[in-house]
Write a structure and sequence with these properties.
The complex is a heterodimer. Chain A has helices at about 1-15, 25-55, 60-65, 80-110, 115-130, 135-145, 155-180, 185-190, 195-225, 230, 255-260, 265-295. By secondary structure, chain A is mainly α. Chain A folds into two domains: about 1-55, no CATH class; about 65-295, Orthogonal Bundle (MetI-like fold), CATH 1.10.3720. The longest helix of chain A is centred in the first third of the chain and has 32 residues, at about 80-110. The longest helix of chain B is centred in the N-terminal third of the chain and has 38 residues, at about 30-65. The chains are: A mainly alpha, B mainly alpha.
Chain lengths: ~300, ~325
C-alpha cells in the first residue's frame, strides 16, 4: 500500500505543478505543520539541556557507586536505584516475555477470530494497553495480598506490576512481527507434513525473532521509566543496600528522582537532575539497541 | 493411535483407501492440543487481568463504603475528607489544557507525515516524534516544576502562579501525549484511499486544500479515536500531575491555581503512612476504581471509533 501511495503522490506532483502550492495560505499552512513536527523536538532539547546544566556538577563516580545520603547531600548517589531498576527489568522480562509471546502466537496462529471469545480477547487487549499505569500498581498490590506476601516495596511486587503493564505492549508488537512472516513459509511447512505447532515453532517464530526482540526491548524501556505503579507498591525512595533476591526491598531510579524532586535542598535538586540524565541514557541505550536489532536482523520478504 | 502421529513425524498415508479424502485436521494429536491449550490460557490471562483489576478494586471499595457514606465520597466540597469531585474537576482542568496543546500539534505532525513527507523523510521523522513518548513521566514532571513553572510561566510570561499549578502540569502533559495523537492520526490519514486525493487534485485543489477538505473529513473517525486515546492517557498520567499540579484538593477551574488530580491524590496517599486496610488506604482504591471506570469508558469509545474507520475503507 505504501509503495502505491508514494508513486501516486509523485504523479500528483507532476500533474498539479508548483504554482498553486506556493500561495501564501499554503505556505503558512506548511509552516504550521513544520512547527507541529518540531515543537516536540524543541521541548526535548530544552529539557535535556536544562537538566544536564542543572546536574552538571554531579557527573562523578559517587553518583552511581554510592547510596543515597541525607548527611552529605553533595555526595548522595543512586547505586540502590540503578541496581533496583535493573533487577526489576530482569524479573519483569522473565514474567512478561514468555506469556506475551505465547498469547500473541495463539492469537495469530491458532485463534479463529470469528469466535466470540477470541474477539473479546482482542478488544480487551486494546483496552488494557490504555489502562493507566497506576491502576496496574493497585492490581499488583491485590496479587501480592492474594499470594500472601505482606512485605512492601520488594522486587517481586514491582516486577509483577511492571510485567502486567507491558504485557499488552509485548503481545501487540509480537503479533505484528508474527503477522509479517509471509503465508508461503507456513504453507510450505504444512505441505511437508508439519503440524501447526511445528510450523510455528520451527518456521514462524525464528523468522519473527528480530521483531519480537525489538518490541520487548521497547516495552522494557517503558517499564524502566515507570514510577506510578511502584509508588502504589510502597517502594521506598531511600534504600541503602543492594538487592539480594526476589523478596529483597528495593528502590528504583524513577522513585528516587520523585523522592528528591520534592526536596528543597539545592544539592538534592542537582543530584536529581544528574540522575535524570542517567535514566535517560539507560532508556536511550535500550532504544538504540532496539533500532540496531531492527536494522541489522530484520528480514524483508 | 500411534505416538508418531502425535508428533507428526510420520504421516500415515497407507490407511486411506484410494479416493478417500485425507483429513489430517481430524487426527488426534495430544501434544498439539496441549500446546494449544497452554497458548490459549496465556491469551485468556489478559481477560483475567481485566477481571482481576475489577475484583482488586471493588473489594476494598466495598469496605470503604461500609465506613464512608456515598454522599461524603461524591461531594464537591473540598473540605470534606473523602470528596472525589474536586479531584475529578482538577483532572478535567489539566486534561483540557493538555488536549489544547496536543490536538493541534499532534494533528499537524500527522498531516505532515502522511500528506507531505516523502517515504524516506517519514522513516526518520516518525521515530523522532515518538522519542517524546519514551521520556519517563517523572522526568516530565521534574521539568514542569524546575523549568516550565519558574522560567517559562513566572519569568518569561510573568504569570502569578505558585510553585505548583495546573497550567504547567497541563502543558507538559500535552507535550507527552503529542506522539499518541500523532501516530494514531497518521494511521487514519494513511488509510484514506488515494483515489479521494487524486479526485481532489483533478478538480484543481492544491495539497493544503486536499489535506484539510478531503483527507481530514474522510479520516474523521480515526482522528476522533486518536484524540480520545490521548484524552485517556492524559486522565491516567500520574507523575507529572503529582509533581507539578499540586497536592491540595482545590475545587476550582482556574488553571493558575494548584490543584490535586485523581492520580495525584493516589500518588500522595500511597506514599503516605496509611496502614493497609484502613479507611484512608481504601480511599486509594475508591479513587482508583473511579479512574479505571472513566478511562475504560473513554478507551471503549476510542476502540469503537477505530473500528468504524477500518470498516469504512
Amino acid at each position: 500500500m505504501s509503495i502505491a501511495a508514494t508513486t501516486a503522490r509523485e504523479t500528483v506532483q507532476l500533474a498539479t505543478g508548483r504554482s498553486r502550492e506556493r500561495s501564501p495560505g499554503s505556505l503558512v499552512f506548511l509552516g504550521l505543520l513544520w512547527f507541529s513536527l518540531f515543537f516536540g523536538v524543541m521541548v526535548l532539547v530544552v529539557l535535556i539541556a536544562d537538566t544536564a546544566i542543572a546536574g552538571a556538577g554531579r557527573f562523578d563516580a559517587d553518583l552511581v557507586t554510592r547510596y543515597d545520603s541525607t548527611l552529605t547531600p553533595e555526595r548522595t548517589g543512586f547505586r540502590a536505584g540503578i541496581l533496583g531498576s535493573l533487577w526489576l527489568m530482569l524479573f519483569t522480562a522473565l514474567m512478561a516475555v514468555p506469556l506475551g509471546i505465547a498469547a500473541a502466537v495463539y492469537l495469530e496462529e491458532f485463534a479463529d477470530s470469528r469466535r466470540w471469545y477470541n474477539r473479546i480477547i482482542e478488544v480487551n487487549l486494546q483496552n488494557l494497553a490504555a489502562v493507566p499505569s497506576i491502576v496496574y500498581g493497585l492490581l499488583a498490590v491485590a496479587v501480592m495480598a492474594l499470594i500472601g506476601i505482606e512485605r512492601k516495596g520488594i522486587v517481586l511486587g514491582g516486577a509483577i506490576a511492571l510485567a502486567l503493564l507491558i504485557l499488552p505492549v509485548i503481545i501487540i508488537t509480537t503479533r505484528e512481527a508474527v503477522r509479517a512472516v509471509p503465508e508461503e513459509i507456513r504453507q510450505g511447512s504444512l505441505a511437508l507434513g508439519a503440524t501447526t505447532w511445528q510450523t510455528t515453532w520451527r518456521q514462524v517464530l525464528p523468522s519473527a525473532v528480530p521483531g519480537i526482540a525489538t518490541g520487548t526491548i521497547l516495552g522494557l524501556s517503558r517499564a524502566i521509566g515507570e514510577a506510578a505503579p511502584l509508588l502504589m507498591l510502597g517502594l521506598a525512595s531511600s534504600v541503602r543496600f543492594d538487592p539480594e533476591g526476589m523478596m529483597s526491598p528495593i528502590t528504583a531510579l524513577p522513585i528516587q528522582i520523585y523522592g528528591l524532586s520534592s526536596s528543597s535542598q539545592d544539592a538534592f535538586q542537582e543530584a536529581a537532575s544528574a540522575a535524570i540524565i542517567v535514566l535517560l541514557v539507560m532508556i536511550l541505550g535500550l532504544n538504540g539497541l532496539a533500532i540496531f536489532i531492527r536494522n541489522k536482523f530484520q528480514r524483508s520478504w | 493411535m500411534s505416538s508418531t502421529s502425535s508428533t507428526g513425524a510420520g504421516p500415515s498415508f497407507g490407511t486411506g483407501l484410494p479416493g478417500a479424502p485425507i483429513d489430517l485436521g481430524r487426527k488426534a494429536r495430544p501434544a498439539e492440543t496441549a500446546i494449544k491449550a497452554v497458548l490459549f490460557a496465556s491469551a485468556m490471562l489478559s481477560v483475567a487481568i481485566t477481571i482481576g483489576i475489577l475484583v482488586a478494586l471493588i473489594e476494598p471499595v466495598v469496605h470503604f463504603f461500609a465506613e464512608v457514606p456515598f454522599r461524603e465520597f461524591f461531594s464537591f466540597d473540598e473540605g470534606t475528607r473523602f470528596a472525589v469531585f474536586p479531584l475529578i474537576t482538577a483532572t478535567m482542568v489539566t486534561t483540557v489544557i493538555a488536549l489544547l496543546v496536543a490536538v493541534p500539534l499532534g494533528l499537524g505532525a500527522a498531516m505532515y507525515l502522511s500528506e507531505y513527507a516523502s517515504r524516506r523523510a517519514r522513516k526518520i521523522l516518525k521515530p523522532t516524534v515518538e522519542l517524546l513518548a519514551g521520556v519517563p513521566s517523572v522526568v516530565y514532571g521534574f521539568f514542569a516544576v524546575m523549568f516550565v513553572t519558574p522560567t517559562l510561566l513566572q519569568d518569561i510570561l510573568g504569570l502569578g502562579v505558585g510553585f505548583t499549578n495546573a497550567l504547567a502540569a497541563g502543558l507538559v502533559l500535552g507535550v507527552m501525549i503529542i506522539p499518541t495523537i500523532a501516530s494514531l492520526a497518521e494511521d487514519a490519514f494513511s488509510a484514506v484511499p488515494q483515489a479521494l486525493r487524486q479526485g481532489s487534485y483533478a478538480m484543481g485543489a492544491n495539497r493544503m486544500q486536499t489535506t484539510l477538505r478531503v483527507v481530514l473529513p474522510a479520516a474523521l473517525s480515526g482522528v476522533a479515536a486518536a484524540i480520545v486515546l490521548g484524552l485517556s492517557r492524559a486522565v491516567g498520567e500520574t507523575m507529572i500531575v503529582a509533581l507539578a499540579a499540586g497536592s491540595q484538593k482545590n475545587f476550582s477551574l482556574n488553571p493558575l491555581e494548584g490543584m490535586q488530580t485523581m492520580t495525584g491524590f493516589m500518588a500522595t496517599t500511597a506514599g503516605g503512612e496509611n496502614p493497609v486496610g484502613s479507611t484512608s488506604y481504601n480511599t486509594l482504591f475508591a479513587v482508583g476504581l473511579t479512574l479505571f471506570v472513566i478511562t475504560f469508558v473513554i478507551n471503549m469509545i476510542s476502540i469503537a471509533l477505530v473500528r468504524r474507520y477500518r470498516q469504512a475503507y
